[in-house]
Amino acid sequence: MNRRTAIRNAILFSAGAGLLPACVRDDKSIIALKTISITGAQERMLAALTESMLPKTKNFIGANDLKAHEFLLTMIDDCTSPDDQKKFTEGLKAFDNLGNDKFGQLFTSFTARQKKELLQAIEIKKDIPEQVLKFYGTVKRYTIQSFTSSKEYLTDIRKYKLVPGSNFKGCVSVNNA
Known about the structure:
Layout: H1 3-23, H2 40-53, H3 63-66, H4 68-79, H5 82-103, H6 112-123, H7 130-148, H8 151-157
């Protein structure tokens, strides 16, 4: 064998061996969080949960378009106390277990009807653990905050004006009192 071919093959092999671990799907979260740690499966479950709360319609965007789950995780990571972060992660696991106990599968595998049924049971607080209720309330609050602070909501629904007082009319006379 030619020495140049051997060197080239060795370089290609070592580059491939170095690149292979990056290609293997790891179950780590995509979002870099400082204090809380969640798995990729839990992140996908949160994305499915927020999309179930705020689904995409033909007229408007949904939670996945806004990346509401990323906003939620960032707010939990940056703006809550360590005790609340611990309660959130425990509630996340309890929610996962609740869905698994109720339907025997992960929340991301639920049908739309199953998701609706579970969320309705949580809304009416029917045989739901306290951890799950607190977790669900937190997710719902931050999902709504993400939606109502989005550019699309502020421009298309609320008709937000960037400059206050843009309805000023300078030609109106002022009466002396």
